[in-house]
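A quick aside before the break. I want you to see a complete sequence-to-structure record at least once, exactly as it would be stored in a machine-readable document. Don't worry about memorizing anything.
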Amino acid sequence: MSALASLSSLRIAPDDLGATVRAALGQPLRREGTLPGLCVTGIVSCLANAGPIPASGRTGLIWGSTDGARIEIGKVLDEICLHDGLPMPFDFIACQSGVAAVYASRFVGDLACGVYMRSAGNVWPQLLCMALCWLVEGRYDRVLCGWVDEADPEVADARHASDWILLANPTTGPIPLAHARLIADPQAHADRITDTQFVPSLQTWIDAGGGPLSVASDMVRVEFLKTNNPAEKA
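That is the input. The structure line, written in tokens, reads:
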């Protein structure tokens, strides 16, 4: 089994994002898009919650977004087509995951992989399955999984979202909050838990106690189990 080492769920007002990024990085992001900024703030928060992390070992990064790509592309089209502007180097969504990984590497040491996945609204089962497979294979010592999304500019009082969890090899990572494992299940069908609900629900489960928590993808279930060692909970 792999260890759930940390999690973080942030909701940030659009006007506060610049200050939040500056506090996390020690400098502003100037030309980069909103998505890299959300990734950086969420990753820093998640790692801070994890406690000491070994400097050695390989780290994987996998993240998704629901509407962030659409909003970023909309900004570019508006600037170019309606206002005769020229695109900036980091305007295109294809660059966003790479920019996010560059900044993330400042905080995780040997960042060996960065993968972006487009979400249709429930990307967490796929993120978890891929991350746990990587850990079981021994490809990485820890994997950061995240979902970030920009506030919809057409919705009043909407907030940006940045949700992250850190999964790790239990022998090398921080003290776990819980354990996670993959279970083959031919009857499993993808859960419709929304991206915005998953990490807050996982935090509620950790705080409340109880039996296992399962999240299903097609043919596979991801099961979270509470740790039984009192020393691990100290």
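Two observations worth writing down. The two ends are 20 Å apart (CA to CA). Confidence is low (pLDDT under 50) at residues 229-234. We'll return to this after the break.
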